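Internal ticket - ligand job 273, iron/sulfur cluster:
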Amino acid sequence: MSEKTVRHILGLSGGKDSTALAVLLHKEIPEMEYFFCDTHKELPETYEYLDRIKARLGIKIHYLAAERGFDHWLDVYGGTLPSPKMRWCTVQMKIKPLEQFVGDDEAISYVGIRADENRDGYISTKKNIKPVFPFKERGLVKADIICLLEDTGIGLPDYYRWRSRSGCFFCFFQRKYEWIMLAQEHPDKFAEAVKYEQDHKDGRQYTWNEGETLLQLLERKDEILAEHERAMIKHEQMMAEKKKSAPNLPLAEVLDSVLEEEDDELPCLACHL
Ligand code: SF4
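stdout (structure tokens):
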């Protein structure tokens, strides 16, 4: 690659926003390089969604894997599970693989933050990687993103039935309701997440959620589901009031809005777009 060549890169996370960005730009920037930082701890629905994106858009995706994977890094960090305050997972499994992929090349990194969002977060701070925000520049909001996905036939990822974000199945950013649903949809993955809480040779106890193990959380299943149900009903009423012209919103959209409103901690850009 010549020194003057600027690379165009777009990180797919398996979420709706980065996918819609690929839909928007794949014809406009045919030289775009798409990549996915594969932690090998993703949901099966995410891999299926990436296959759907490739088939519909006719693009190639580079799967970038962190050197030696999650279990290696967990060991390096002394068995300390990642958390919102200690996000070594994002650095080791998302940011570093991206930086290695780009190397010293000049690159423009296309980021799918919408015009109706106000978030930033973990993106590479390397000077040769310049982030740009096409949705913000073009004033595109969530409804536009959903249209882009529907128009191409890609739609939303299947996990949207029960979870609002892409990322590792054990992501500590997921809500209690989503943990309960993980146990229902993927009991093997839930069991694996439980094992990560329990497997500490030195006897220390780590939990994905503050102050509660996953098994304790599962014991409160009925309470958590009832709470979620109440939030859904309340939100549906609000949406029906606000959008009388479109009362029959797809469940996935309602769920997405409810869960977004419940956000008290904005997750990282590298994993959830
Ligand atoms: S999805 Fe969550 S657990 Fe996975 S790397 Fe990102 S922040 Fe860490």
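Auto-summary: The pocket of iron/sulfur cluster is lined by residues 39, 82, 87, 89-90, 93-94, 167-168, 171, 173, 268, 271 (CB under 6 Å). The chain is about 45% helix and 10% strand.
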